[in-house]
Amino acid sequence: MVTIIGSLNMDLVVTADRAPQEGETVQGSSFSQFPGGKGANQAVAAARSGAKTVLAGRIGDDSFGEALVRSLARDPIDTSAIERIAGVPTGTAAITVDSRGHNRIVVVPGANGAWTASHVEAIRSLIAQSNVLLLQLEIPLEAVARAVTIAREENVFCMVNPAPALPLPADFYPSIDLLTPNENELGLLSGITLGGPRGWRNAARVLLNRGLPAIVVTLGEEGSLAMDDKSDMHLPAYPVKMVDSTAAGDCFNGTLAAEIDVMLEARGKTCSRTAFTVMELAPAIDRATRAATISVTRRGAQPSIPWREEIDRFETWFEEHRL
Q1: Could you give the C-alpha distances from 252 to 3, 54, 86, 136, 246, in angstroms and in order?
Q2: Average pLDDT, stretch 100-104?
Q3: DSSP per residue over 197-221, as a string?
Q4: CA distances to 9, 112, 168, 276 from 108, in Å
Q5: Angle at CA 49, nearest 5°, toward 43 and 55?
Q6: Contact at 8 Å (CB) between 193 and 170?
Q7: pLDDT at residue 101 in the model
Q8: Is residue 10 within 8 Å of residue 141, measured between CB atoms?
Q9: What pLDDT, in 10s, does the model give residues 284-319?
Q10: Strand partners, 232
Q11: What span, in angstroms and rounded, lies between the C-alpha atoms of 283 and 256?
Q12: Could you give the strand order of the β-sheet that contains 2-5, starting from the edge strand earlier in sequence?
């Protein structure tokens, strides 16, 4: 089972040829409203990949919150741990998508900011039942830190997608099993100027030296970099025409969590810490890359995320969509 503790947002999406500069107004081409939030998006990806999936989150007592729960009901996701908070708005994200499919996002946390460490402690039993706990940083860091501690105490594989990027306490790194930053997040967390493969590896090594067991860095059109203390590997991307990259990272993370869940089930027990080397994770990372590749050819966050059967047919699909 994969448990996600994270955000639910209503995405308010504007498309335009390009994003405006400071003080500038540009003409947009469309406006859409999509269910989103990193936690919810990753839960959809895990569920559509076939994992038994539970999403724990917080929404406001408003129309956006109701719409998000209705949308999640279309997927095989356990939403019983989603709580409505009175007097607080549901989280929202204002997203601008340019003609190349690149996005800029401003998030207003709303009810996502109502998480505390005690709220996470209240769902300890849910975490303990899981093979994989997947976290992001769109809820307060104190709640994320408590979830990480519980996962370690309960011997649950803990995967953290550090988005949006925030400085993390030193004791955070040795307490998780896998960190999945993108290039920008890697630079902020490491404090290193990147500028290509050597910079990526140097920055990843900084985080490994802080006690992190393994890291997978998503690099967009450059693929991904996976490293642990024994090896590193660069996995290529699949070049396609990008329409909207909003959910690419979330799709990757949710799919990867689902694949790790399968690997843990195959071992017959929940195991953490040194569960897998990055070499063992390579097929799972590639499958997650395939899922994310499909997602960037579609508009919206959750609507873009593929089902397991679509990922299974990726090679045929890619022949029709490759650049």
Answers
A1: 16, 17, 33, 13, 12
A2: 88
A3: HHHHHHHHHHHHTTT-SEEEEE-GG
A4: 9, 9, 21, 36
A5: 20
A6: no
A7: 87
A8: no
A9: 999 999 999 999 999 988 999 999 999 999 999 999
A10: 227
A11: 10
A12: 77-85, 53-60, 2-5, 132-135, 157-160, 178-179, 214-218, 224-228, 232-235
Kindly report the pTM of this predicted structure.
Answer: 0.93
> Where do we find the tokens 């990480």?
148
- Give the domain extent around 289: 2-321
Q: What is the CATH number of the domain that holds 262?
A: 3.40.1190.20
Concatenating the DSSP letter of every residue in 25-61 gives ---EEEEEEEEE-HHHHHHHHHHHTT--EEEEEEEES
* Domains contained in the chain, number: 1
CB neighbour class for 292 (10 Å; exposed up to 12, middle 13-18, buried from 19): buried
In the residue annotation, 250 being an active-site residue is answered as yes
pLDDT in tens, 259-285: 999 999 988 755 555 578 999 999 999
Q: Select which of 62, 244, 250, 286 is catalytic.
A: 250
- Residue by residue, what is the 3-state secondary structure of 258-275? HHHHHHHHHCCCCCCCCC
Under the phi-then-psi rule, with left for phi > 0, alpha for psi from -120 to 50, and beta for the rest, what region is 147? alpha
Three-class DSSP category at 300: coil
pLDDT digits (tens, 9 = 90+) for 186-231: 999 999 988 889 999 999 999 999 999 999 999 999 999 999 999 9
Q: Cα(285)–Cα(217) distance, rounded to whole angstroms?
A: 10
